[in-house]
């Protein structure tokens, strides 16, 4: 099918979400039509991109097309306004998923975005490099934090003993003599058990849909999820039996991912999100 120039925002939305239009066109054709309509894309305002991004997310969640949409996100990523709006929409939709307990497959969309074919130089979760990946990683880390902090109320791992040299011991003695003011303890918000369970399920769903590709592309993030899930299964009384069973299945799967290390692992960077002082 030849290239179709799109003249209105509604035409882009129709290409993305209208099944009557999509049935006659391949995903590659739709992407080519959208990217080729430069005259339209270059003049789109923020409100136009909001409509398009909402349509894309709706298509991913309601029509079961997370891979198609994640591929389109990568293609449109170079447009800075699109990236900013899509980041906001993903954050809003993910918050709604947890706060309102909707049954939309948000984790499947986020895993598709994380494991999409990003150009190597943009496959990093830094706000100034790739705000979309940065937002997705922040969302996942938020789920980890909710589950992890709730588990720590009931179980705190003892730090492993560290081998100390004579110089280390001497430095420790000199430090003990100095009066070091105690750092203020960060006030933790105790979340409702329902929210903790929803965040735990979201982590499980994310891993179940991404499978080993999550570890291949995001080793550090996967390790954080693994370390969060492990104690929550055995020590968090707020998690229901069904949720713990799901987490156990996920934990067993994750344990298998690292058994056969493959060559060519991507080392994607993750920007550290500064902690805010809630005091």
UniProtKB/TrEMBL annotation:
Domain DUF7627: 12-263
Segments of skewed composition (Basic and acidic residues): 154-176
Entries under Pfam families matching the protein: DUF7627
Top-level taxon: Eukaryota
Disordered: annotated segments: 154-188
InterPro entries membership: DUF7627
Protein name: DUF7627 domain-containing protein
Species, as recorded: Caenorhabditis briggsae
């Amino acid at each position: 099918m030849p290239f179709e120039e799109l003249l209105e925002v509604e035409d882009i939305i129709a290409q993305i979400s209208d099944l009557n239009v999509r049935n006659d066109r391949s995903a590659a054709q739709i992407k080519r039509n959208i990217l080729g309509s430069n005259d339209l894309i270059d003049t789109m305002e923020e409100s136009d991109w909001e409509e398009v991004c909402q349509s894309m997310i709706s298509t991913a969640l309601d029509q079961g097309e997370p891979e198609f949409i994640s591929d389109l996100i990568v293609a449109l990523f170079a447009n800075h306004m699109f990236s900013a709006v899509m980041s906001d929409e993903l954050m809003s939709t993910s918050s709604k998923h947890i706060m309102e307990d909707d049954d939309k497959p948000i984790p499947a969309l986020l895993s598709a975005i994380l494991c999409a074919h990003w150009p190597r130089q943009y496959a990093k979760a830094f706000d100034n490099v790739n705000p979309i990946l940065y937002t997705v990683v922040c969302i996942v880390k938020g789920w980890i934090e909710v589950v992890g902090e709730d588990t720590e109320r009931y179980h705190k791992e003892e730090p492993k003993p560290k081998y100390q040299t004579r110089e280390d011991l001497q430095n420790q003695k000199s430090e003990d003599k100095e009066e070091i003011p105690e750092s203020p303890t960060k006030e933790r918000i105790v979340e409702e058990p329902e929210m903790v369970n929803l965040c735990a399920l979201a982590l499980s769903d994310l891993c179940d849909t991404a499978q080993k590709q999550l570890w291949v592309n995001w080793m550090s993030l996967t390790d954080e999820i693994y370390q969060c899930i492990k104690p929550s299964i055995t020590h968090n009384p707020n998690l229901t039996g069904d949720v713990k069973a799901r987490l156990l299945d996920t934990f067993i799967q994750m344990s298998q991912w690292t058994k056969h290390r493959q060559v060519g692992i991507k080392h994607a960077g993750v920007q550290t999100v500064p902690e805010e002082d809630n005091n």
